[in-house]
């Protein structure tokens, strides 16, 4: 199939695939538990899925940044997705990250994810080299036309230098190419402009793209995003405290913004665990992902706190700091802080 080149083009038709309605609510991006050899720990991953479902989450996002997808081989990606789909057992939609540098590589991941039974796909713009908005639009249109699954765009400028502008997102929402957006830009102004362009808080679901889902990946400002009209959140910290984010979402949906803000403030304090690893000694990814995994191990959800090589492990003192954050947030550890590997 030839790649379409214009920014404007023929719409690909109505939403297809097994995800029939707009997404909403709390959709955590799952951590990928690893054993001490770096292999996917499927037993721990299954427990993590059950931990999230028991808290009442509305969907699961496998193979995102929090899931260390960039570090996993294709075989390990397949193991993760197959395990998550089996454990979810159709109770909530499973979104599969198909993130890679170029359209042909993303297309291979998308076809594999669809074959395994993913309900929807999540892709960034192409990266490594910078792309023009026309090329970004062509990329998403090609993916949408080639694989029969709803497609969500993922805006994460920390990893992908080509931003998804509100103009491009709105156009791809209006013509049916995109089913939704996960916004991890940290640019609250741009997110608000997009929401206004899609009809604003009052007109989000009667505006130019009524079925389009907007999810914030900024877990510290969820209450503000929901107030502005976002449909939900994809919080990395939601692995650790999914029930807290569900309470926040339900309070916002009920219009109880004081309760939503109080829950958000508790989660902000808990999020401080991402800095448990000293900045002078390790990368921020090592610290944040190591903290989430250490917390899950301390809570008895996963077996090991291992992160993918070459990320550095947390020290025992850093793990103790994670434990202190859990206790302060009302989440009581059940495991000791040593032996995090």
What is the secondary structure topology, with strand pairs?
Elements (H helix, E strand, L loop, with lengths): L24 E2 L15 H13 L5 E3 L11 H15 L5 E4 L5 H14 L3 E4 L9 H14 L4 E5 L10 H9 L5 E4 L4 H10 L2 H4 L9 E4 L5 H7 L3 E2 L8 H12 L3 H15 L12 H15 L17 H13 L13
Question: Would you mind describing this structure in some detail?
Answer:
Belongs to the DapA family. InterPro entries: Aldolase_TIM, DapA-like, Schiff_base-form_aldolases_AS. Keywords: Lyase, Schiff base. This is Dihydrodipicolinate synthase family protein. Helices cover 41% and strands 8% of the residues. The longest helix has 15 residues. With 341 residues, it is α/β, with parallel strands linked by helices. It is globular, with a radius of gyration of 19 Å. An eight-stranded parallel sheet has the order 1-8-7-6-5-4-3-2. Helix 3 packs parallel to helix 4 and helix 9 packs antiparallel against helix 10. It has a domain of 230 residues: TIM Barrel (Alpha-Beta Barrel), CATH 3.20.20.70. It contains twelve helices and eight strands. Helix 4 links the parallel strand 4 and strand 5.
Name of the CATH architecture of the domain at 25-254: Alpha-Beta Barrel
Strand order of the largest sheet: 1-8-7-6-5-4-3-2
Strand residues, percent: 5-15%
Q: Helical residue percent?
A: 40-55%
Helices and strands, in order, run as EHEHEHEHEHEHHEHEHHHH
Strand count, sense and barrel status of the largest sheet are:
8 strands, parallel
Task: Look at the helices and sheets and give the structural class.
Answer: alpha/beta
The tally of helices reads 12
Supply the CATH superfamily name of the domain at 25-254.
Aldolase class I
Could you name the CATH topology of the domain at 25-254? TIM Barrel
């Amino acid at each position: 199939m030839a790649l379409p080149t214009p920014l404007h083009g023929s719409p690909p038709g109505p939403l297809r695939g097994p995800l029939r309605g707009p997404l909403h609510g709390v959709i955590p991006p799952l951590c990928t538990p690893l054993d001490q050899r770096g292999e996917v720990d499927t037993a721990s991953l299954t427990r993590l899925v059950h931990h999230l479902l028991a808290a009442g989450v509305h969907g699961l996002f496998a193979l995102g940044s929090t899931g260390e997808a960039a570090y996993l081989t294709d075989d390990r990606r397949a193991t993760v997705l197959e395990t998550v789909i089996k454990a979810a057992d159709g109770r909530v939609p499973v979104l599969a990250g198909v993130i890679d540098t170029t359209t042909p590589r993303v297309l291979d991941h998308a076809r594999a994810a669809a074959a395994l039974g993913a309900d929807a796909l999540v892709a960034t713009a192409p990266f490594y080299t910078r792309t023009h908005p026309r090329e970004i639009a062509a990329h998403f249109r090609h993916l949408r036309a080639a694989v029969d699954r709803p497609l969500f765009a993922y805006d994460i400028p920390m990893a992908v230098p080509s931003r998804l502008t509100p103009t491009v997102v709105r156009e791809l929402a209006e013509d049916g190419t995109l089913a939704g957006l996960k916004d991890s830009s940290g640019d609250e102004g741009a997110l608000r402009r997009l929401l206004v362009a899609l009809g604003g808080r009052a007109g989000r679901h009667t505006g130019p793209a009524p079925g389009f889902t907007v999810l914030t990946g900024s877990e510290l400002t969820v209450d503000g995003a929901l107030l502005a009209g976002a449909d939900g959140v994809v919080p990395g910290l939601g692995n650790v405290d999914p029930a807290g984010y569900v309470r926040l979402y339900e309070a916002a949906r009920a219009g109880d913004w004081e309760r939503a803000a109080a829950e958000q403030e508790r989660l902000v304090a808990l999020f401080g665990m991402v800095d448990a690893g000293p900045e002078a000694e390790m990368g921020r990814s090592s610290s944040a992902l190591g903290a989430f995994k250490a917390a899950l191990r301390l809570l008895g959800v996963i077996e090991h706190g291992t992160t993918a090589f070459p990320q550095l492990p947390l020290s025992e003192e850093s793990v103790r700091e994670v434990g202190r954050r859990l206790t302060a947030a009302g989440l009581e550890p059940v495991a000791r802080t040593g032996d995090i590997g």
